Amino acid sequence: MLCEYLNKNYIKKFIVFIGVIGIITLAFCGCGKKSKEPKAEQQSHEKEQKSEEIPKELTELEENIEKIIKSLEGPSVSTKEDEEKSGSESSQGQGKESEEDQSSKGGESQGEQKSQGEQQKNQEGQQNQSSQQKPQQKDPWKEITPVINDMHFKWNGYMPEAAKKGANKELIDNFSSALNNLTNTVTNKNKTDTLMAASNLYGYIPDFYSLYKTSTSPEIKRIRHYSRNAILNSMTGNWEQAGKDINKLKDSWSLFKNTVPNDNEEDSSKLDFSIYELEKVIKEKNQSLTDIKGRVTLSNIQSLEKALEEGKGGQGGQSGQNGQSRQGGER
Predict the structure, then answer these.
(1) Which of 7, 46, 107, 218 is 20 to 30 A from 82 (CA-CA)?
(2) Which residues of the chain have pLDDT under 50?
(3) Domains along the chain?
(4) How many whole angstroms separate alpha carbon 67 and alpha carbon 79?
(5) How far, in Å, are 22, 207, 240 from residue 78 at the CA level?
(6) Quick one: pLDDT at residue 108?
(7) Residue 88 DSSP one-character state
(8) Chain-centre distance of CA 134, in angstroms?
C-alpha cells in the first residue's frame, strides 16, 4: 500500500512539473514573439519616416524650369532626360566604333581600289554641298513654348497634393503668379526677363520639397537658386542684388554644410571654395568671370546633391513642418 501511494504521489508531482515547464516555455515564446513584432513594426515605421516619395509632377516642374533656362543658354543643371540621352548616345557610339573596327580591313582594301578621279569628284561634290548648306540656328522659343504649356498642366495636377501636404495658400498663390509671369515673358520672347522669371519661379521649388521627408535636405536647392540668381543679376549689371544673393547663398550654405557627412567632405570642400571665388568676382564686378565661376558653383552643387542622393553618407531629410517657415518668403 505504501509503495502504491508513493508511486501515485510521484506521478502527480511529475505531471505537475511537466505542466509548469510547458507553461514557462509558452510564456517565453509569447514574449519573444511580442518583442520581435514591435521591433519589426518600429523598423518599418522608421523606414517610412526616413524618406517619402516626391510626386512626379513636382520633379517634372523642376526639370522643366531647367529646360527653359538651358534653351536660352542660361546657367542650368543637367536633367534626368539629359543624363538618359547622354547614356544612350554613349552606348550607341561604342556599338558604332565596334562595327567600324570589324569592317576597317575591308574598307581599307576597297579604298585602295578607288581611282584618283573618283576621289576628286567626291571632294568637289562635298565642297559644293557644304557651301550651299548654311547652319540653321534653332529657335529656342519653339522649344520653350510646349514646355511652358506643359508646366501649367503639371501645376494644376500638383496643387491638390501640395495643399493636402500642408502648403499654405500664400506659397501656392506665389508659385502660380510666378508661373504666369514666366509665361508672359516667354510670350514676349524676352531672353533676360525669361531667365530671371524662371529663376524666380525656381525659388519656390525648395519650399514644396520641404513638405516631404527626404534623404537630402531641400536646402541644397535653395543654395542653387541663390547661386543662379547671383549669376543672372550680374549679367544685367545689377551688382547690388547680386551681392545680396551671395550673402543669402553664404547663409544657406553655412547651415547646410554642417549637416554634410564626412564621406562627402571632398564634394563639400569643392563647393565651399567655388562659392568663395564666386563672391570675389562679384565684388570685382567682373561679368565674364562671374558667369564662369557661377557655372562651376552650380556644377559642384549638383555633384554634391547627386552624391547625397546616391547614399554616399546621405544626411537626414527635412520635414514639411520645418520647411513651412520659408513659405511665401522673399526669394
Answers:
(1) 218
(2) 2-3, 5-6, 33-38, 40-48, 91, 109, 131, 312-316, 321-325
(3) 143-202 (no CATH), 215-326 (1.20.120.290)
(4) 8
(5) 66, 21, 29
(6) 53
(7) H
(8) 38
Question: Residue with C-alpha cell 514639411?
Answer: 320
| Owner of C-alpha cell 535636405 | 217
Q: Is 313 left (phi over 0), alpha (psi -120 to 50) or beta?
A: left
Q: Which of 205, 233, 200 is nearest to 218 (CA)?
A: 205
Burial of 246 per CB tally in 10 Å (0-12, 13-18, 19+)? buried
Distance CA 230, CA 285 (A): 11
Summarize pLDDT for 217-260 with one digit per residue, the tens. 999 999 999 999 999 999 999 999 999 999 999 999 999 999 99
**pLDDT at site 138:** 85
Cell of 168: 499654405
Separation of alpha carbons 88 and 84, rounded Å: 6
- Three-state DSSP at 185 gives helix
Q: pLDDT tens for residues 138-177?
A: 899 999 999 999 999 999 999 999 999 999 999 999 999 9
User: Is residue 324 within 8 Å of residue 166, measured between CB atoms?
Assistant: yes
Q: How many other CB atoms are there within 10 angstroms of residue 269's CB atom?
A: 13
Alpha carbon distance 28, 26 (integer Å): 5
Angle at 210 between CA 209 and CA 215, to 5 degrees: 80
306's CB contacts (< 8 A; 6+ apart) are none
Q: Considering only CA atoms, which of 228, 222, 253 is closest in space to residue 241?
A: 228
